[in-house]
Amino acid sequence: EVxxxxxxxxxxxxxxxxxxxxxxxxxxxDNYAIAWFRQAPGKKREAVSCISTRDDTPYYDDPVxxxxxxxxxxxxxxxxxxxxxxxxEDTAVYYCAGRSGLYWYTEAAEYDYWGQGTQVxxxx
Length: 124
Fold this sequence. Notes:
- The chain contains no helices and eleven strands.
- By secondary structure, it is mainly β.
- It starts with a strand and ends with a strand.
């Protein structure tokens, strides 16, 4: 059974950085797409960044462009989300999601596997 496990969340002051990790088990990183979603209280779950083995160009939602970087370490079956210059509006539960296949999508319904989520809180 595929399992995704996030780590790296926490409390940080505005302007600070965090690196989230998404470790996958029983998942072929040779043919995959991984996305980071976030969900703030009262808001819908939205894609923050996506990456796939097929598309060399990752996706970033407009509010995080230039501040967040997604990367993967296939040897470790792990995808990272480096978050810099954090803002209070980045506060949310962050989820990693995975799907077999060559392409990423920004719709949550396209992903078959989900982690349990990790809380990111940015104080002002």
